[in-house]
Amino acid sequence: MKQWIIVGLCCLSLNTFAQSDDSLVMRSISDEIMMHGKCYDDLRVLCKQIGHRLSGSPQAVKAVEWGQRAMEDAGADMVWLQAADVPRWVRGEEHLKFKFGKDKNYREVRVLSIGNTVGTDGKILEAPVIMVNSINEFDQLDKGLVEGKIIYFNYRFRQDLINTFEGYGDAGRYRWLSPNIASAKGAAGVIIRSVSTGVDDEPHTGSMRYADTVKPIPAVAIGNTSADMLEAKCRAGMVTAQIQSECKMYDTVRSYNVIGELKGTEHPEEIIVVGGHLDSWDVGEGAHDDGAGCVQSIEVIRALKALGIRPKHTIRAVLFMNEENGLRGGFAYGDSAKAKNEPHIIAIETDAGGFSSRGIGLDMSEDKKERIRGFRNLFLPYGVYDFEHDEGGADISPLQRMGVPVAGLMPDPQRYFDLHHTARDVFENVNHRELKIGATTLAGFVYLVDKYGLGPTAPLKDMNIGSTPYSQRKAK
Amino acid sequence: MKQWIIVGLCCLSLNTFAQSDDSLVMRSISDEIMMHGKCYDDLRVLCKQIGHRLSGSPQAVKAVEWGQRAMEDAGADMVWLQAADVPRWVRGEEHLKFKFGKDKNYREVRVLSIGNTVGTDGKILEAPVIMVNSINEFDQLDKGLVEGKIIYFNYRFRQDLINTFEGYGDAGRYRWLSPNIASAKGAAGVIIRSVSTGVDDEPHTGSMRYADTVKPIPAVAIGNTSADMLEAKCRAGMVTAQIQSECKMYDTVRSYNVIGELKGTEHPEEIIVVGGHLDSWDVGEGAHDDGAGCVQSIEVIRALKALGIRPKHTIRAVLFMNEENGLRGGFAYGDSAKAKNEPHIIAIETDAGGFSSRGIGLDMSEDKKERIRGFRNLFLPYGVYDFEHDEGGADISPLQRMGVPVAGLMPDPQRYFDLHHTARDVFENVNHRELKIGATTLAGFVYLVDKYGLGPTAPLKDMNIGSTPYSQRKAK
Fold first, then answer.
1. ipTM score of the complex?
2. How is domain B92-246 classified at the CATH fold level?
């Protein structure tokens, strides 16, 4: 009973006296990051000296080394690597060409194979193209018509959805599903309209996984301009395509999460995680996805340390490996936390681009959400107003399965899917102030959750996904 | 008494039954603009076929013709031009070179003269440089030390201010004031650190006006990288500068505002203005400043027309001329409205860049603000949450002086002052979705204000700035 009275008084003080002090601390965090923040410089190094860094690539090895150094430079009390065995998929050379109607010559368009797909062993796969505008339309097609053909899934990203992540969920199904459903009907290959809000010819790659029941077939994505052209040509008459690609999945490779922490002064055993993912797709520089999240997470450690804010609980910044095509780093972290029986107060992920913050998504019990919403006024000066969405992050989903409350930074979503998984996701397309405001939001959030807690912290539940720890399973 | 009961019932219905209908209309406006909007295509034409368009320039003439056509294409019931005599300032060639310490050679840096300033008639103005970090520091300098020198005002844009418009107000004083206060003490010229949040070498131009009491002296701006270099060199020892420029102010030229309107069905005599400015600085393409505002204002007309929404009051989209260096278009509009005794319900300006909307600033009586804040929930799905700031716009400030309630679209402010008044303010730096969400916000706002009104509309007061209409005065 007494405990609850104390909790009640804490809530009262939070809502009355404490907020003015907290707003000053929030301001000092903001000033520190906006004026002296290192995240933008860190991102320049990651993008320009290392570049893209798909799991299992030589650049991913360098990125791990970079992350370790950056975490040490930020002043973490302890920095370590956490092993995870990751898939190694290599793109190689790839071409897509079309022949329209009675044309004699093939015309090449820009293309990116969908990540994890098989290639053609460098040979030319040539077949007539059949266009469908939706999975529903594809389902109507006879198997006989599909067999041996290249199916073009011409599904557009819904530009009417203001939250582009809803649009991504919608159109993203085509990247995940189309190679499987096409193969199940005997298709020879798949072309998709990129999962893209862009009004350009930029192809977008991204992950897929073959179902155990289908024969893997090559699947490639084209940019919206080429997709418009292909749509018009398919309507006008016969189209033949040539897909040539060297994509291949190799054996699993040992890689690592990078972890840095500030040790808690009162409850060091209870942990707050803030993280992004260190791997990226193998085009561009992985600047927004998710270099931004990595440097922001490191900035949280640096800013708190620089301001002399010693947290009561342990703050861990985690650079997860292999979010893009396997999630092995996320599972490795979850497995380790479970094995060590580490109670986690919350995990927050930043993996939605380095844009101005607009909100923090919350996936947890209603009472914990309400405690966090009590901080709302402290975030408003930084443009953060939305605490109404259920959001977490892929890397922290294993923790979430074990009962850890999760949250996700929600930046402005308008530009993300123009750049996401493309050659244009480069440092130059990240704005220094937007990136820093994201870091400020995260640091403020960590500061407040550390100071006030979220109520009792539950021990980790079992993930219930079988006896072999997920991170040690064979990647496929 | 009866009237007030009706008003009361309207408010009640607004807060209960009507909002669900209104949210559907808002959604239809959003869908129309996000899916079929023309503003991004319009902006491409304005930026790429015409480019920058300083008042009095040949491009400004073309921009007026473009605006008229675009307004007609959008489906305005009536389109017309409104004369305004504008200054014609021409930059010509310009150079800034430095010699450091005992160096023999001069080193050239990128530079932009501040708008409206005098040049050197193409001759070289050579003088030692004295650096000051603030106006306060300058005020401490003896006149004897200043005389004949080039004063370098090394004042930085405050990156700690989250609302960059506050930072602009702060640092912008240096652009407006430094040539005047330096000349008053006998300086030969002025260099300022650009009014810029950029972490680059981009110089920013912008307006200034010589006080009647001082001798006009040349004043130029350098980018932040050059400014950092100059700061270091000034600290290290003697610096000499050469300014050479052909800037010149010519005679006033006849130009025009472009106005298009949808006639009101119930109260055509009462007017709602939505506008931006058609002129730009003479570098880049005036894409965010304020091509974005122009195409968004035209889009409001187009979207309402396309959706068959006939307004009760008259909706006017106004492309104002000469916001950048004279405000003659704004005054011409105000003079005309006063002469014709046109009651205005509200004027809203969009001149803060084509970024994602975050709020609508309101400068009006508290009761009118409260009516608008009653629409808050209708805007939240579009990321618009902030109705707490006093904002209007320069072009509508003459209307404001006559008692018209004014509002200003508040987009996300983080990137604006990286680009504002620079060669980088080009079409490529405007995002199609962000631009359209701004137009959606404006169209929704106009729809709601038209539907529910803001209470009684007052007749226009006198501007009280003398007997000659401002727009007919001689520009200086």
1. 0.94
2. Glucose Oxidase; domain 1 (3.50.30)
